[in-house]
């Protein structure tokens, strides 16, 4: 992507609001160096060398003293000329400097505009740009490390590897179309091409699994606890949260609405949702709670279905339209009363625990992490977002369609079209193929100055 020096120059306070030891004002654009010289009344320090400077007001009086650094384009974050002033962290001081730059001709930066310019100028791709926001918002050490891997290009490299495979297949297919006397996919199809297409599909499926884990790491997984009243759902929430988040009483139906809390299990951010006990009831409020419980299950990454040792679970607890890929863990609570062993017993599909005594809780934690994609501590984990995962899924759908066309002999041109769709969907992830409105949606969620 060619570097495009923007015609206007933007300015923003790049540090968070409030008091602090250091505050940063950032400028980027074709006039950044000229504006910095007007702001300080002195020539700029050498590129990438800090120089001590005063920032001057319109009356020539100093506003603040700090370090000035210059980064000439195209070898800067945005690909443009950048100047940063690192001064004292008071909001009033920083705003005065920023306001002076606006008076001198800079434009207030939009949220995420520095990162957007970095993308538009080819310094980073779209997945890397989103990783910047993921790094800032990281809720755990593992999430921060995974976001940094995405920022350095680990996710993008895997996507581009798949795009390269698809380009090779498309080139071969287009050549067959150009030089073939008939639109006969059987005449073109070869075991090698079929195998290459199958291998690409398998690699995409693997990447999709990794991306799902990365999404859960970046944005947090959602686990819903469901079951009949008084089986220990709220007690399990409290045990996992390490606090009394939910009211626990012997009275059935105590929990009537959804109760949410956020925890981190072995580095995996997890939102746990406690739900109303599911049963037939004439109580209007409780019926609404049951409806909300089932709706939460439909949107969950994992459902924990609880009952009590010696009692049968409700057969109709789960909603009929539950997504088939949603894992369900059957927990049998109160094994301290039944004498059962914690964990999975031979021949049983349920896991035994005692929320009261803590028996089986370590086994449960390990199983929860496994069902949600495994521990995120390995060094290959990267962050991903919902839109990126959807693009991977759409690419996989197109690849499946291409394989169907190939095996059923439906025509080379139709096969080529499906491969093009698969290729384009992958391009949406890194920004090679990007609807204009998507850029606005992505960068508008960034903070100003980033």
From TrEMBL:
<comment type="similarity">
    <text>Belongs to the TRAFAC class TrmE-Era-EngA-EngB-Septin-like GTPase superfamily. TrmE GTPase family.</text>
</comment>
<dbReference type="InterPro" id="IPR018948">
    <property type="entry name" value="GTP-bd_TrmE_N"/>
</dbReference>
<dbReference type="Pfam" id="PF10396">
    <property type="entry name" value="TrmE_N"/>
</dbReference>
<dbReference type="GO" id="GO:0003924">
    <property type="term" value="F:GTPase activity"/>
</dbReference>
<dbReference type="InterPro" id="IPR004520">
    <property type="entry name" value="GTPase_MnmE"/>
</dbReference>
<keyword id="KW-0630">Potassium</keyword>
<feature type="binding site">
    <location>
        <begin position="274"/>
        <end position="277"/>
    </location>
    <ligand>
        <name>GTP</name>
    </ligand>
</feature>
<dbReference type="GO" id="GO:0046872">
    <property type="term" value="F:metal ion binding"/>
</dbReference>
<dbReference type="Pfam" id="PF01926">
    <property type="entry name" value="MMR_HSR1"/>
</dbReference>
<feature type="binding site">
    <location>
        <position position="84"/>
    </location>
    <ligand>
        <name>(6S)-5-formyl-5,6,7,8-tetrahydrofolate</name>
    </ligand>
</feature>
<keyword id="KW-0547">Nucleotide-binding</keyword>
<feature type="binding site">
    <location>
        <position position="123"/>
    </location>
    <ligand>
        <name>(6S)-5-formyl-5,6,7,8-tetrahydrofolate</name>
    </ligand>
</feature>
<dbReference type="InterPro" id="IPR027266">
    <property type="entry name" value="TrmE/GcvT-like"/>
</dbReference>
<dbReference type="GO" id="GO:0005829">
    <property type="term" value="C:cytosol"/>
</dbReference>
<dbReference type="GO" id="GO:0030488">
    <property type="term" value="P:tRNA methylation"/>
</dbReference>
<keyword id="KW-0342">GTP-binding</keyword>
<feature type="binding site">
    <location>
        <begin position="230"/>
        <end position="235"/>
    </location>
    <ligand>
        <name>GTP</name>
    </ligand>
</feature>
<feature type="binding site">
    <location>
        <position position="255"/>
    </location>
    <ligand>
        <name>Mg(2+)</name>
    </ligand>
</feature>
<protein>
    <recommendedName>
        <fullName>tRNA modification GTPase MnmE</fullName>
        <ecNumber>3.6.-.-</ecNumber>
    </recommendedName>
</protein>
<keyword id="KW-0479">Metal-binding</keyword>
<keyword id="KW-0819">tRNA processing</keyword>
<feature type="binding site">
    <location>
        <position position="26"/>
    </location>
    <ligand>
        <name>(6S)-5-formyl-5,6,7,8-tetrahydrofolate</name>
    </ligand>
</feature>
<dbReference type="GO" id="GO:0002098">
    <property type="term" value="P:tRNA wobble uridine modification"/>
</dbReference>
<dbReference type="GO" id="GO:0005525">
    <property type="term" value="F:GTP binding"/>
</dbReference>
<dbReference type="InterPro" id="IPR006073">
    <property type="entry name" value="GTP-bd"/>
</dbReference>
<comment type="function">
    <text>Exhibits a very high intrinsic GTPase hydrolysis rate. Involved in the addition of a carboxymethylaminomethyl (cmnm) group at the wobble position (U34) of certain tRNAs, forming tRNA-cmnm(5)s(2)U34.</text>
</comment>
<feature type="binding site">
    <location>
        <position position="251"/>
    </location>
    <ligand>
        <name>K(+)</name>
    </ligand>
</feature>
<keyword id="KW-0963">Cytoplasm</keyword>
<comment type="subunit">
    <text>Homodimer. Heterotetramer of two MnmE and two MnmG subunits.</text>
</comment>
<keyword id="KW-0378">Hydrolase</keyword>
<feature type="binding site">
    <location>
        <begin position="249"/>
        <end position="255"/>
    </location>
    <ligand>
        <name>GTP</name>
    </ligand>
</feature>
<feature type="domain" description="TrmE-type G">
    <location>
        <begin position="220"/>
        <end position="373"/>
    </location>
</feature>
<feature type="binding site">
    <location>
        <position position="450"/>
    </location>
    <ligand>
        <name>(6S)-5-formyl-5,6,7,8-tetrahydrofolate</name>
    </ligand>
</feature>
<feature type="binding site">
    <location>
        <position position="249"/>
    </location>
    <ligand>
        <name>K(+)</name>
    </ligand>
</feature>
<feature type="binding site">
    <location>
        <position position="230"/>
    </location>
    <ligand>
        <name>K(+)</name>
    </ligand>
</feature>
<dbReference type="InterPro" id="IPR031168">
    <property type="entry name" value="G_TrmE"/>
</dbReference>
<dbReference type="InterPro" id="IPR027417">
    <property type="entry name" value="P-loop_NTPase"/>
</dbReference>
<dbReference type="InterPro" id="IPR025867">
    <property type="entry name" value="MnmE_helical"/>
</dbReference>
<feature type="binding site">
    <location>
        <position position="234"/>
    </location>
    <ligand>
        <name>Mg(2+)</name>
    </ligand>
</feature>
<dbReference type="Pfam" id="PF12631">
    <property type="entry name" value="MnmE_helical"/>
</dbReference>
<keyword id="KW-0460">Magnesium</keyword>
<dbReference type="InterPro" id="IPR027368">
    <property type="entry name" value="MnmE_dom2"/>
</dbReference>
